[in-house]
């Protein structure tokens, strides 16, 4: 099906809580707005205009990197002005089918798009997905400084529907309806504009997955809906370095004073190296040497936190998350216990994990082997990771 699309992504999203505007936040490793753009392009959109707030050009370029078939337009102070800007940039003929979609509804699928486009072919002036209202509706007073809102009436729910997007129209019909809309009023959706102009709007099956991200708690629900079935993966890693001249060692991102140092191409942090391999192993991405070969001079003396961050980013980019990690350091000296909590804190910081999901332990080999003779130090790590199934 041939169609054009406008994605409205110009809102500030103040109700979504502190941080970046909700359309640029991450959902399963991808910016929220990218989900919609990918879905529309995959469904066959010939051209998509993404309407953004002034100053969001860099955020949009980063969010949509690698995708073709889209362009940007700058939105206005209200949603209807942003839609008008998108339609103007779309350069559509009057008979072109245009879909208008909220970037804050990231879980749109091809079936939703096909349904509203097909409804226009049956003679409707507009089409939108909608869900029948199932809950009892109450009218109440506004939130007060003290106390909860008071119910003033129970509203009849029969015949009421929750409107969603994408909403589909012929470009000429939508443009004429907007031209006739009173300038002093601001519609909450585009179907209302066409309705007021006398157009016939039909409903297609809605979907709870088309929820709109509005409040902070909505993101947790969207993470669950977007993830589908999650599988738990386990990875393990091992690393060892010999001692050489120096006055300290790096272990799990913490520098510990010592009468020797560990020898390695980077900072020789065996704890971080083992943990990096554990994360890479959990997602089948080889080992640390594949990503940061010791022959590459860029990594000479590099902080091993760079390696761990890279592994964590690969997991996040695939929609996964690190669940917990466990590192065991094997040495006679230096003594690990005085520094263990600092190491746990540093790992928790690097992986954005609660402290109770990070374990650092130490053991000796009872003076046996290369660690027992204090020729070197070893580390092993285990990590659990959740990935989309």
Could you characterize the architecture of this molecule?
This protein has 2 domains: 198 residues, Spore Coat Polysaccharide Biosynthesis Protein SpsA, Chain A (Alpha-Beta Complex); 159 residues, 2-C-methyl-D-erythritol 2,4-cyclodiphosphate synthase (60s Ribosomal Protein L30, Chain: A, 2-Layer Sandwich), CATH 3.30.1330.50. It is 30% helix and 29% strand. The protein has 12 helices and 19 strands. Strands 1, 4, 5, 6, 7, 10, 11 and 12 form an 8-stranded mixed beta sheet that branches. A 5-stranded mixed beta sheet has the order 16-13-19-17-18. The chain has a two-stranded antiparallel sheet with strand order 2-3.
In short:
It contains twelve helices and 19 strands. With 389 residues, it is an alpha/beta fold.
Shape: elongated
Poorly predicted regions are: none
Gyration radius from CA atoms, angstroms: 28 Å
Helix percentage:
25-40%
What proportion of the residues form beta strands (DSSP E)? 25-35%
Q: Give the CATH superfamily of the largest domain.
A: Spore Coat Polysaccharide Biosynthesis Protein SpsA, Chain A
By CATH, the topology of the largest domain is Spore Coat Polysaccharide Biosynthesis Protein SpsA, Chain A
How many domains?
Answer: 2
Class derived from helix and strand content:
alpha/beta
Mean pLDDT: 93
> How many E strands?
19
């Amino acid at each position: 099906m041939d169609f054009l699309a406008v994605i409205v992504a110009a809102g500030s999203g103040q109700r979504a809580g502190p941080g970046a505007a909700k359309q640029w936040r991450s959902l399963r490793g991808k910016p929220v707005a990218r989900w919609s753009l990918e879905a529309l392009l995959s469904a066959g959109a010939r051209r998509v205009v993404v309407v953004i707030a002034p100053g969001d050009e860099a955020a949009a370029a980063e969010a949509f990197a690698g995708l073709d078939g889209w362009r940007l337009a700058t939105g206005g102070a209200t949603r209807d002005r942003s839609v008008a800007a998108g339609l103007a940039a779309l350069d559509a003929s009057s008979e072109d089918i245009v879909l208008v979609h909220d970037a804050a509804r990231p879980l749109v699928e091809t079936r939703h798009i096909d349904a509203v486009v097909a409804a226009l072919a049956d003679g409707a002036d507009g089409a939108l997905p909608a869900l029948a209202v199932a809950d009892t509706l109450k009218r109440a007073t506004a939130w007060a400084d003290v106390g909860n809102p008071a119910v003033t009436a129970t509203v009849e729910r029969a015949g009421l529907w929750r409107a969603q997007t994408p909403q589909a129209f012929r470009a000429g019909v939508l443009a004429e309806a907007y031209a006739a809309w009173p300038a002093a009023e601001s519609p909450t959706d585009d179907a209302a504009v066409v309705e007021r102009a006398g157009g016939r709007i039909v409903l297609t099956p809605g979907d709870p997955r088309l929820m709109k991200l509005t409040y902070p708690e909505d993101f947790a629900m969207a993470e669950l809906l977007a993830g589908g079935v999650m599988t738990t993966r386990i990875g393990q890693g091992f690393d060892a370095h010999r001692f050489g001249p120096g006055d300290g060692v790096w272990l799990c991102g913490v520098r510990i004073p010592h009468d020797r140092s560990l020898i390695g191409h980077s900072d020789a942090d065996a704890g971080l190296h083992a943990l990096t391999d554990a994360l890479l192993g959990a997602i089948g991405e080889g080992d640390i040497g594949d990503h940061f070969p010791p022959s590459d001079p860029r990594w000479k003396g590099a902080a091993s936190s760079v390696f761990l961050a890279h592994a964590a980013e690969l997991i996040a980019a695939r929609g996964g998350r690190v669940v917990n990690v466990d590192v065991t350091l094997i040495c006679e000296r230096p003594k690990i216990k005085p520094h263990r909590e600092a190491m746990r804190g540093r790992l928790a910081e690097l992986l954005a994990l609660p402290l109770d999901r990070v374990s650092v332990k130490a053991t000796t080999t009872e003076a046996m082997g290369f660690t027992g003779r204090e020729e070197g130090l070893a580390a092993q790590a285990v990590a659990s990771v959740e990935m989309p199934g």
